């Protein structure tokens, strides 16, 4: 794709971001395991979430499309899943792979998980090791770290486990396994990661307790899902928050976006940089069927300054780091971000993908093992950018071109459909081109 950046964009727009990806995955997991049928409104029909839908269909759950934004899931109960006919293909979806490993460890049948090239390179040992402590029988390639992973389901026992890295995917896999395990499963996190699993399980009446960084779940006989609405994804809205902040005289009202505090690190950091951002909570957590607060975010173009970001802030903004690197490259002064090495383990090595693309555009940045220093420049120069088959790298590249002056080419944007199939349409809507 070719983009000629005009710089100095100006707009005043309303926008509803696509549904939250993390919550969409969990909505299918937990409604499938419930003993009733539920409707999921505003489900994210992106490739990643469809990997979860297809996996549960292969495990014997009836999931029907009601319309282009809603699903009906006829839950089979915690013990109602059936052995799939063949290997379970999970596409590009790390969330599906990690969470389903926890679930399948406790079933009465054997499964083999496979994925695309990117997923086949992503570490699974982080879930396999603690699940083995619970008694799971799991084998993977490359010293039990990579897909294909073979899981022989069986009886599990609760453990107390300290997560070496703050990962919501690992925490969720263990909580799901913990619902089937004898006794209590207690998980300690180094820093708070997103807590959508805990909120949804609480809403569906599982026996779960959260005390700061400690989460405890006990054996669960049944969960009861209810009809739910999935709020918009702050990680998808993040691209347009950046576009608005970096444009001139612009305003963007983002409607019905999830305001879960474990996902708002990006907003906190941008406000510290001088970003004019107002957050208006419209539905409080206790008013939502899944304990997820949501509302509107109003963004106004701003002059931004470099700041320091501490490693404990990272889990609350892990997926927004690539777009933050772009923003920091155009802010005044220096930004120093600690604790970014987890980015190397995403759909692609996002430290490398950002370094290659931003440096190509003239950005000044230095990386050591776990930290990144970015010195702000005035504007980017024309460049050829690479999506690295990674949806977030692709979308950052488009925003970079739009806020610049010059000619940009970006390869292969097909990967955007992993999380945000309508991204280019929303660019046009927000800029007033259609
Ligand atoms: C996710 C957790 C995060 C995030 C990913 C979605 C989730 O991964 O990067 O996009 O839905 O639980 P980690 O748990 O590996 O940090």
Summary, kept brief:
The protein is an alpha/beta fold. Helix content is 30%, strand content 25%. The protein folds into two domains: 2-19 and 231-431, Enolpyruvate transferase domain (UDP-n-acetylglucosamine1-carboxyvinyl-transferase, Chain), CATH 3.65.10.10; 21-228, Enolpyruvate transferase domain (UDP-n-acetylglucosamine1-carboxyvinyl-transferase, Chain), CATH 3.65.10.10.
Summary tags:
globular; UDP-n-acetylglucosamine1-carboxyvinyl-transferase, Chain; 2 domains; alpha/beta; 4-stranded mixed beta sheet
Helix/strand layout:
Layout: E1 2-6, E2 12-15, H1 21-32, E3 37-41, H2 47-58, E4 62-67, E5 70-74, E6 88-89, H3 94-104, E7 110-114, H4 125-133, E8 137-140, H5 141-144, E9 146-152, E10 160-162, H6 168-180, E11 184-188, H7 196-203, E12 208-211, E13 214-218, E14 228-229, H8 234-246, E15 251-258, H9 265-272, E16 276-283, E17 294-300, E18 308-309, H10 321-329, E19 334-337, H11 350-360, E20 364-367, E21 372-375, E22 383-385, H12 391-402, E23 405-410, H13 423-431
Helix pairs in contact: 1-2, 1-7, 3-6, 4-6, 8-12, 10-11
Shikimate-3-phosphate (S3P) binds next to α1 and α6.
């Amino acid at each position: 794709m070719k983009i000629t950046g005009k710089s100095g964009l100006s707009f005043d727009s309303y926008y509803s971001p696509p549904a939250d990806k993390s919550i969409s995955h969990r909505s299918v997991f937990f409604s499938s395991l419930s003993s009733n049928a539920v409707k999921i409104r505003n489900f994210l029909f992106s490739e990643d979430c469809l990997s979860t839908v297809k996996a549960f269909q292969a495990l014997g759950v009836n999931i029907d499309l009601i319309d282009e934004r809603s699903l009906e899931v006829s839950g089979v109960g915690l013990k109602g899943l059936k052995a799939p006919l063949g290997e379970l293909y999970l596409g590009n979806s790390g969330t599906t792979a990690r969470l389903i490993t926890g679930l399948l460890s406790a079933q009465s049948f054997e499964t083999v998980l496979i994925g695309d090239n990117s997923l086949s390179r992503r570490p699974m040992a982080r879930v396999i090791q603690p699940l083995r402590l619970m008694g799971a029988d799991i084998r993977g390639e490359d010293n039990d770290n990579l897909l294909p992973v073979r899981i022989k389901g069986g009886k599990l026992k609760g453990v107390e486990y300290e997560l070496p890295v703050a990962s919501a995917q690992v925490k969720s896999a263990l909580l799901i396994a913990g619902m089937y395990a004898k006794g209590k499963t207690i998980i300690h996190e180094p820093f708070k990661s997103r807590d959508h699993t805990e909120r949804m399980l609480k809403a569906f009446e599982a026996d779960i307790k959260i005390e700061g960084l400690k989460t405890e779940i006990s054996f669960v006989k049944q969960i009861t899902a209810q009809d739910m609405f999935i709020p918009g994804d702050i990680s998808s809205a993040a691209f347009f928050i950046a576009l608005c902040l970096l444009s001139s005289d612009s305003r963007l009202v983002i409607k019905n976006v999830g305001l879960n505090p474990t996902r708002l690190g990006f907003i906190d950091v941008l406000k510290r940089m001088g970003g004019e951002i107002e957050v208006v909570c419209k539905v409080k957590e206790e008013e939502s069927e899944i304990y997820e607060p949501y509302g509107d975010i109003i963004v106004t173009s701003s002059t931004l300054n470099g700041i320091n970001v501490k490693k404990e802030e990272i889990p609350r903004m892990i997926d927004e780091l690539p777009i933050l690197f772009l923003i920091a490259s155009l802010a005044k002064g220096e930004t120093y971000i600690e604790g970014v090495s987890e980015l190397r383990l995403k759909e692609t090595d996002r430290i490398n993908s950002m370094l290659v693309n931003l440096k190509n555009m003239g950005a000044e940045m230095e990386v050591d093992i776990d930290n990144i220093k970015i010195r702000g420049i005035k504007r980017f120069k024309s460049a050829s950018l690479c999506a690295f088959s990674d949806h977030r790298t692709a979308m950052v590249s488009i925003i970079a071109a739009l806020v610049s002056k010059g000619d940009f080419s970006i390869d292969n944007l097909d990967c955007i459909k992993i999380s945000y199939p309508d991204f280019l349409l929303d660019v046009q809507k927000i800029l007033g081109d259609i």
